[in-house]
């Protein structure tokens, strides 16, 4: 394993702490107006909690995941590798040549699952002795860009395919491309398409009781939810909450930017959007937004007590101390 260790950071040694130092010195910080403190969210984060920048400059940041001993894994997807951050904040390369791994999931037996984008597929990538592909196409239609996944207690895998990447050349194949969709792979390997009418399905997550499946639609204005049956099938699709991130960019395109999702021990759902990290109760009440220097792409609770929220996006990794803990029933 090739290591790229950097010195461990103090708990609040990031940009937001620098902002506080500038203010204490009487210096204006409008020049660094991207350095914002998160607002207070009852039971989630205290007012004035610093945002700790662990490191910036990664070639893509996605798929954060709690990984034993308080560590965090995430994918540096444009570099085709997985990065590890230990509890002290030391950054190393965990693995390379990941076939463009984008999002990760960890099974109870230690199997590391990934949605992979270079040669689009979903499967187990570690340990090497158990590596295998679960799905690479649906009824002969190749996946465009598998995006996110979550494991359930039945041994099944929910994942999203956002569709072909407009910035990449189409695969050399005679097979037709699959539509953007949400899928489920059962524990015995059967692939089921659950929904194919979401414009750009992105993040996917289960409630702690696994009775609700959440799906982020990047191009939509709302977080989508489904009821989950005992066999893993879904029903009663609905718009769970409208997102504050719904906005128009400089090109006139409307998008919420909805991306990665996480849940905490109390069932709150956290959504990375254009606005920041939007937090909602399990009853669909908007609780607040954690503002960040850069637009977030994905997030996960990690640390020994799972009371640290890690947020990745636009090449940067941040961590925020929380009042609540992440759900402990799975790695994410």
TrEMBL record:
The active site is at residue 259. A divalent metal cation binds at residues 62, 202, 259. Residues 61-312 form the SMP-30/Gluconolactonase/LRE-like region domain. The keyword Nuclease does not apply. Substrate binds at residues 145, 147. Its cofactor is Zn(2+). Residues 1-32 form the signal peptide. GO terms for molecular function: hydrolase activity; metal ion binding. Binds 1 divalent metal cation per subunit. Pfam families: SGL. This is Gluconolactonase. Keywords: Hydrolase, Metal-binding, Signal, Zinc. It comes from the Bacteria. InterPro entries: 6-blade_b-propeller_TolB-like, SGL, SMP-30, SMP-30/CGR1_Lactonase.
